[in-house]
Amino acid sequence: MWNGKMSHVQHPIKFTSVIVDEAAQASEPDVVLSFMSAGYRVVVVGDHKQLGPVIPERNLCTSYVSALETPFLERMLQKPQRHSANTLLNVQYRMHPSIRRFPSIQFYDSKLRDSVSMPHRPELCCLWPQRDEHVLFVDCQTPQTFGAGDKSPDGVENKVSLKNVGEAKLVLEACTQLLEAGCSPKDIAIITPYTAQQQEIRTRLAKRPDSRNILVGTVHALQGSEREYIIISFVRSFVQDEYDIHSADSSGMILSTDKQSKALRDICSCKLGILSNNRLLNVSLTRARYGLVCIGNRSVLSNGSRDFFDYTQGLAERGCVVDRLNAKGTAKRRGG
Question: Which Gene3D superfamilies does this entry report, sorted A to Z (predicted)?
Answer without folding.
Answer: P-loop containing nucleotide triphosphate hydrolases (3.40.50.300)
